[in-house]
Structure formats: structure tokens, C-alpha cells
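User
Class, as today's exercise, I want you to study this protein, comparing sequence with C-alpha cells, and judge whether sequence predicts the C-alpha cells.
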Amino acid sequence: MVMGASSGGGFCFFVYKALRAKAIASYISPGIYSDEELSQHSNKTLSPPLPPIAYIYMTKDGLVTQHIEHNKKMLEQSGVIHQLFPVDAHPLTPQLCAERLPEVGLEHCALFLATVTRRSPHLIQPETYEIQKSYLGGEWRDAMNEMHFHEGILKARLSLGLSPMIEGSKRGELSPISPSGHSWLWAAVEEEIAAAHGVHEMTSDHIDQVLDFLMLHAKVDSPNNNNNANSLYGISSSTTTDSDATKSA
């Protein structure tokens, strides 16, 4: 199995042969096999046949969505097993924030979102909580500083009964600071904003279905690896049959 996101998703289609991949998951990337490979697969002259593909993409990404919908037609014509997992943008409500970030809690999530709408109402729609702008431009920073998300690692350690003092990082120990230089809580909040905005971001949405799809076609045991798996994923019988799935795995 091979998984990749963005440029890494496109890279999967260059390395799948060397890795002997049995299935591919391409996140937010419209990569596809070459025309020659698709033609050989269609004519059943390619051995082994092309691995099944799962596309996970954000519908707000207009260009990527167009390419993947085009890919779907080409894969159907060539008889390559595939499944699309679209991800829609969604409101970042206080309830969802608290559910995804329990260390922040409902009260502080509501306060954070209220702070954002007060400081920068163009970032989030006050009534619907729809994210209007990504965190990448830095405009969310002031509100996050006001909520002391830099101190999030301290609160998290105290809630777990750990010492508030962070000693020098030992080998194999997770650093208290994310690669961005902020606390992990800051990074987690950024990821939730990005996922809610729904434009070209890695996501855990559909992860169970994607892993089941990969394990099914890679012949890895899973709870859903049975004869009804195709109907589970809604794969059209015109492009996929049980025998086709067996051949492609």
C-alpha cells in the first residue's frame, strides 16, 4: 500500500512499481497513471494490473476536484478499480472545537471564536462559524496569542499530572515544540482551522474507509474484507466485480 499527500500523492504514481504497491491512496492530489499504462490495463496486456486508487480530496479545491472527476472517467473507461472520498468544508463551531480539542474545552473554544469574530470578522462568519480565510496568512495569530495557545503545552502537562518543567528532550521523546516553533496545541488549533476551511489540507476524514479500501485490495485482513466490500464502498459493478478485485489485488 502507498499513501501520499499533495506532491507526495503525485509521487505515488512514479514509485508504485518499484514498491510493488497493491493499492494507492492519493490525498489532495489528482495524480493518475500514464495513458499507455491505462491502455495496457484496459487491453489486459499489463502484468500485474494497475493498483486500485483511492482519491481523498477537498471539494473546495476546484482545480483538484475537476482533475479527479476527469480521472474518474478515465479509470472507469480503463477498468481500474477506484473510489472517491470527497471532503467538504465545515463550520468550526465551539462544540466541534471542544470535541476535537478537549484540552481547550467548550468554554475556551467559545471564547476563542468570539475573540476572532471581534478582532477579525472577515476570518469567520459569526452566525454560521464558516471559516472565510486560512490561517496561513497569519491573520489568526493575534487571537491565538490572546488565548495563550503558546502556553498550551504547560496546561496539557498539568492536566496529565506531569511536571510543568520541560527538561531537555531525550532521544525518542516527543519535543514540546512543533516544527513551526509553537506549542503542539497551537499547531492543533491551526490544523482544525485548516480542515474547517477545507482547501488543500491533509485530513483524517474517511480514514477508516480509506484504510479498509487499501487493506481490501492489498489482501490485508480487516473487518470489512469480505465479498460485500464493493457494495460497502459503493463501487459500481460496471467497473468492479469480485473477480476484478481479486485479479487487481
